Amino acid sequence: MKNLTTPLSDKAISDLRAGDEVLLSGTVYTARDAAHRRLVELINQGAPLPFSLEGQIIYYVGPTPAPPGKVIGAAGPTTSSRLDAYTPILLKAGLKGMIGKGKRGKNVIDAIKEHRAIYFVASGGAGALLSKHIYEVKLIAYPELGPEAIYKFKVKDLPLFVGNDIYGNDLYEMGRLRYQRATCP
């Protein structure tokens, strides 16, 4: 298990490999489809973003409302491939990491390598458990998007796996090959 703190540095990212288990602490921003579309529009217009992407992580999540006494409700990952069209543009603009679930497309894996970024995988279906690692939530932009607005999370020991590293390794491909070797003589 590796401990990692945001903002991400090139050194920290270079030490990670697909399949590594990570406990992430620090600041994480949230964004899903509509927010990604708006961020990319701002980048294309040369307009300022609602937060700096440099060294930052975006968590693909639409959290549920906070129950009494909590800062947030369930905060499980959304399917990452839905954001593949936007990801290379955000990586080029300085984004260093993403958190989601599921396999990424070749264009994103290539962009991760090119821009020395990282893709983390969070366990799907565990949103209530993952929310226990979020201790502060602040609305940053696009409140009209409701749970898909951009939020700033403060996290402590958020459990993740490295899905794609800067070397082109892919946790999902590694798992597929391991399964084939085990089941096909």
Annotation keywords:
alpha/beta; five-stranded mixed barrel; fumarase; 28% helix; 185 residues; 7 strands
Write the layout of secondary structure elements.
Elements: E1 2-5, H1 10-14, E2 21-30, H2 33-45, E3 57-59, H3 87-92, E4 97-100, H4 106-115, E5 118-121, H5 127-131, E6 134-141, E7 150-164, H6 171-183
Parallel strand pairs: 1-2, 2-3, 3-4, 4-5
Antiparallel strand pairs: 2-7, 5-7, 6-7
CATH superfamily: Fe-S hydro-lyase, tartrate dehydratase beta-type, catalytic domain
SSE ordering? EHEHEHEHEHEEH
Name of the top-level CATH class: Alpha Beta
Distance between the termini: 32 Å
Biggest β-sheet strands, sense, barrel: 5 strands, mixed, barrel
Instruction: Supply the CATH architecture.
Output: Alpha-Beta Barrel
Give the beta-strand count.
7
If you compute it from the alpha carbons, what radius of gyration comes out, rounded to the nearest whole angstrom? 16 Å
Quick summary of this structure?
The protein has helices at 10-14, 33-45, 87-92, 106-115, 127-131, 171-183, and strands at 2-5, 21-30, 57-59, 97-100, 118-121, 134-141, 150-164. It is α/β, with parallel strands linked by helices and 185 residues long.
Task: Describe the 3D structure.
By secondary structure, this protein is an alpha/beta fold. It has a single domain, classed as fumarase, CATH 3.20.130.10. The protein is built from 6 helices and 7 strands. Strands 2-3-4-5-7 form a 5-stranded mixed beta barrel. Strand 1, helix 1 and strand 2 form a beta-alpha-beta unit. The protein is globular. The termini are far apart. The mean pLDDT is 93.
